[in-house]
């Protein structure tokens, strides 16, 4: 898949997002509440880490035992991670179709996706659909696991920083290296060997679709 380059947006990346959020809360909330919320957002922005190093997101390496003659005695058939550029386009396409179909169009988050998820959750009376983009999922790796509104705002700010600092193919590569497919299946390469006993470059279309289908709920669908 040909890499798609995206330069810093004219709004100034993550800082532009902070400014817009502050303006929204100031103009749409009563003045006292608006000022309190605005200062809260600015304080959260200060606590957001610098641009994270996506190279830090590496797959968990499986172990294996090899005899001196090269025979594999135990463990994984492969411990070599397949680079992003070597993955078949249909495998990448299956992941995008399941997790973030507008990945190459949005700039960290999808307003349409958030609106659709809010509508579906309201109709169901519970949370049945998420709205996090792949970039937000990558940003989440650099935060704690608390499910709070403050952490969600931090996630958005880090996602904007990532989008402003990395190419889309680099973000997708970091995601595929670290995404959870279930126990002993962290990252696409490990998942391919774990579920289908083959290199991800050899996956068929149904196999790629099956792996993509696991991602919305790995604990339930693995």
What does this structure look like?
With 222 residues, the protein is mainly alpha-helical. The protein has a two-stranded antiparallel sheet with strand order 1-2. The chain is globular, with a radius of gyration of 20 Å. The two termini are 27 Å apart. The N terminus is likely disordered.
List how many beta strands DSSP finds: 2
Largest sheet: 2 strands, antiparallel
The quaternary structure here is single chain
Number of alpha- plus pi-helical segments: 10
Sequence stretches where pLDDT stays below 50 over 5 or more residues: 1-12, 25-29, 31-39
Radius of gyration: 20 Å
Shape: globular
Listing every helix as H and every strand as E from the N terminus to the C terminus, the arrangement reads HHEEHHHHHHHH
Question: What is the CA–CA distance across the termini?
Answer: 27 Å
Secondary structure: elements and pairs:
Layout: H1 13-28, H2 31-47, E1 64-66, E2 72-75, H3 89-99, H4 111-124, H5 134-140, H6 149-165, H7 168-178, H8 188-196, H9 205-214, H10 218-221
Antiparallel strand pairs: 1-2
Helix pairs in contact: 1-2, 1-6, 2-6, 3-9, 5-6, 5-7
